Amino acid sequence: MYFADLHVHTNVSDCSMSAENILKKAKKSGITHIAFTDHDTTQCAFEHQRLAAEFGIQAIPAVEMSAYDYEGKRKVHILGYGYKTTEHIEAIGSETLRKRHENCLRQIHILNNIGYQVPVEEVQKMAGDCIYKQHILDYLLKTGQSKSLFGDIYRNIFKNGGPCDFDITYPNAAEVVEAIKKDGGKAVLAHPGQQKNFDIIPLLVQSGLDGIEWNHPSNKDEDKKKVEAYAREYGLFLTGGSDFHGQYENGGAGLGEYPAHGESICLFVNN
């Protein structure tokens, strides 16, 4: 049996749950294979792989890298699976995390200036090495300064041109694919239906792209058909996953709700 969720985050990045608690849920759900794809870091990846084995679940080292298509002016997320080393991934990812952390510190400073009480040290306790906006929003909720995690503050301050609606610069998508390949991993384009970045697939193939995420909460039926067409044309395999973030995803999918395509079992051969 192969029932896989290959797009799962933990509290190492921006999920509200630990890997252990996620694995408990996965075991109850009948998941047989899993990949923890924390953003821009391989921290704990091999530890999580060993932990999954204790639950009788097969895991693979994984990561989700944030990137950008500077020609098409669109965000691109690249999933990396089964890497043997981490040097090239970490060289890029650590810089992205540094920028993201500084970005959130700036957002906290703005919130404090406009009347909220958000001590950096308290938010840091809720996060790993890098603070994410979800940690800030969760702190505001837990301290009674917000009524919901993704309510008015999220919509009016962090989105829609609000004072904290700004982002960082990201690495080039092709360079991210190349880094994953240099570390012995398989590179997969994440949720193209969400970011509408199908046009970059031919370029990424030249850099070594191996697959495309087929099943994902944001991929509509027409997106899946496009994914299938590109996969046939360029000899890519199909994957899938829930993009699980626990409570830190507005209307997010449940664990195992978007199982990986059967073709993705190739990732677990010799791993």
Overall helicity: 25-40%
- CATH homologous superfamily classification of the domain at 4-87 and 184-268: Metal-dependent hydrolases
Could you say what the CATH topology of the domain at 4-87 and 184-268 is called? Answer: TIM Barrel
Number of helices: 10
Spatial extent as radius of gyration: 18 Å
Strand order of the largest sheet: 4-5-6-7-8
Would you write up a description of this structure?
This is PHP domain-containing protein. Pfam families: PHP. Residues 4-69 form the Polymerase/histidinol phosphatase N-terminal domain. By secondary structure, this protein is α/β, with parallel strands linked by helices. Helix content is 39%, strand content 15%. It has ten helices and eight strands. The strands form two sheets. The protein has a five-stranded mixed sheet. The protein has a three-stranded parallel sheet with strand order 1-2-3. Helix 7 (173-182) runs parallel beside helix 9 (201-207). The protein is globular. The mean pLDDT is 97.
Helix-strand layout with pairing:
Layout: E1 4-8, H1 19-29, E2 33-36, H2 45-54, E3 58-59, E4 62-69, E5 74-81, H3 87-113, H4 120-126, H5 133-142, H6 152-158, H7 173-182, E6 186-189, H8 192-195, H9 201-207, E7 211-215, H10 221-234, E8 237-240
Parallel strand pairs: 1-2, 2-3, 6-7, 7-8
Antiparallel strand pairs: 4-5, 5-6
Helix pairs in contact: 7-9
Q: Which key terms come to mind for this protein?
A:
5-stranded mixed sheet; TIM Barrel; alpha/beta; 271 residues
Q: Could you provide a short overview of the structure?
A:
This protein is α/β, with parallel strands linked by helices and 271 residues long. Helix content is 39%, strand content 15%. It has a domain at 4-87 and 184-268: Alpha-Beta Barrel (TIM Barrel).
